[in-house]
């Protein structure tokens, strides 16, 4: 599981910082999460192949999370993209994009599917054999979802030597990998755990931005491998967090601690702070395994 | 008259080039012309004060000329802008912007006026004591206007020593500057030209992008100080110009020559060309006083 931060600053793009966008590579998928203005240039800069992006998840319709989407969709067209593109985001996102494509008379030459979200409860919005993506309803000024990306457990690992010792026919190996007990050539019932071991532990990534301090998300993200939680403010601006429905670094750390995640990533820093190291300092007091996102930074989670 | 090129490449923003946007400073106005994605960052990079921009002119609704507008309007709001903003552009532009502001629940705290254009004939869309702006109907795949920015003639220059010699009362100096004849203290009729000289010659800037080769614009831009004319292609791709309704460098030069402008600026280069110097070489053969736009370049026209 690999995460590339394209942008992680709040509000407006600046000369050297970008609004929110990130790329999650998980089980051979390249998922784009949020798409602030300038995302397509950040994708180029970070050498992410455009054609590998088939799913884009938009948390909410504030500009710093979505104003780069129409440009990216248009660029895909100009590059003669042929493969499908799926966009998941709040109701209204389809109208925003299609209005602009209509008025510029620039329909895509590839299939563009919108999956509009309006549920206030969590729902699975993507699923295949290897991964699921579910919404994490957040508490922001407008309708906002985080996203929980979860690997599915892989097959059990077959201990081939053991299987041979128990005289199990090769045609049953797949059943063993799926966790089933089998009958050996000698007519014996072989319990699955005798010839397999557990699959590699699954990893999960919980993306939570933007949101006020909102402990209601804790049960859903419990035990996640990585939690990205917005931290717009330091504690010095604590009083701004609640009315703007953003969080402080300490609040992000409190969520991480309560949820028992393995690692916390901070981001969505207000551009008023010249030194983002202070976010880490404040959060680490509460949750030590905490890292700072920054534009262009790549995290590999083994 | 000063022109700052924020971006002058066709189609998609790239790591080191930007789509179309430029800033024209004329008679104390700061006019923003077109607004591709990334314009707000280019404004910062080129140290153009956001608050000085009160008028934005959008030629057409292709993304490389307008996808940066909603972000700029939103940033103005985040920076607590108070002064009015006027946007001139094709019909539909208001719907594009207001839909996004509505869905993000982010109405501007300043007054935002849309002046939607749909006339196929030239019209004056802005006028004050010192300058006029009129549309230049162009020939592109969708409804597109260029813009002609014209200084108004200033007052005549008073030759104070002469006026004193003719014994003209100071209270009449303003009439002289306005071109009127006056009666001296000695009762003599003093012809205006005896005590004044012509005002400084007026300057004008014709912005023509995007457009096919379209000689119909020549009468309107006749004698302009500067013509910015798109040159998407070199002559090697001549056959692409007509169907895409773009121009070659040679065609831009032919328009400049026919219109007898003082200077030609080329831009809107297709990103297929690694060396833009070739645009200048081709155009110069037909119209020698030709310059290349490039991102971040500043032209001062005396």
From TrEMBL, chains A, B:
Q: Mind telling me which Gene3D superfamilies this protein's record contains? A: Ribonuclease Z/Hydroxyacylglutathione hydrolase-like (3.60.15.10)
Catalytic activity reported: Endonucleolytic cleavage of RNA, removing extra 3' nucleotides from tRNA precursor, generating 3' termini of tRNAs. A 3'-hydroxy group is left at the tRNA terminus and a 5'-phosphoryl group is left at the trailer molecule
Q: Which Pfam families match?
A: Anti-Pycsar_Apyc1 (PF23023)
Please list the residues that bind Zn(2+) 2.
64-65, 210, 268
Binding-site list for Zn(2+) 1: 60, 62, 140, 210
Question: EC class of this enzyme?
Answer: hydrolase
UniProt keyword annotation of Transferase present: no
Bilayer-spanning residue ranges: none
The cofactor required is: Zn(2+)
- The EC number of this protein is 3.1.26.11
Q: Which PANTHER family match?
A: ZINC PHOSPHODIESTERASE ELAC PROTEIN 1
Instruction: Read off the NCBIfam families from this record.
Output: PRK00055.1-3, RNase_Z
What is this protein identified as? Ribonuclease Z
């Amino acid at each position: 599981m690999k995460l590339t931060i394209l942008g992680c600053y709040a509000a407006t793009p600046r000369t050297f910082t970008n609004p929110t966008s990130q790329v999650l590579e998980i089980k051979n998928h390249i998922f784009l999460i949020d798409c602030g203005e300038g995302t397509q240039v950040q994708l180029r800069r970070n050498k992410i192949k455009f054609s590998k992006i088939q799913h884009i998840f938009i948390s909410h319709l504030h500009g710093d999370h979505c104003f780069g989407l129409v440009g990216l969709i248009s660029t895909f067209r100009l590059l003669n993209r042929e493969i499908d593109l799926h966009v998941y985001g709040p109701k209204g996102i389809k109208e925003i994009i299609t209005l602009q494509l209509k008025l510029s008379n620039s329909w895509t030459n590839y299939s563009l599917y919108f999956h509009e979200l309006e549920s206030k409860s969590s729902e699975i919005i993507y699923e295949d054999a290897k991964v699921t993506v579910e919404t994490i309803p957040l508490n922001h000024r407008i309708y906002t979802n985080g996203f929980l990306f979860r690997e599915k457990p892989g097959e059990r690992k077959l201990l081939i030597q053991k299987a041979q010792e128990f005289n199990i026919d090769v045609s049953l190996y797949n059943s063993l990998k799926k966790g089933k007990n089998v009958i050996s050539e000698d007519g014996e019932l072989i319990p699955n755990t005798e010839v397999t071991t557990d699959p590699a532990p699954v990893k999960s990534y919980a993306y939570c931005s933007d949101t006020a301090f909102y402990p209601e998300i804790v049960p859903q993200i419990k035990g996640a491998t990585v939690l990205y939680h917005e931290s717009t403010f330091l504690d010095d601006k604590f009083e701004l967090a609640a009315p703007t429905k953003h969080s402080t670094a300490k609040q992000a750390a409190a969520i991480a601690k309560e949820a028992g995640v393995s690692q916390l990533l901070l981001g969505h820093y207000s551009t008023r702070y010249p030194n983002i190291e202070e976010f880490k300092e404040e959060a680490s007091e509460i949750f030590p395994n905490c890292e700072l996102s920054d534009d262009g930074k790549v995290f590999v989670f083994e």
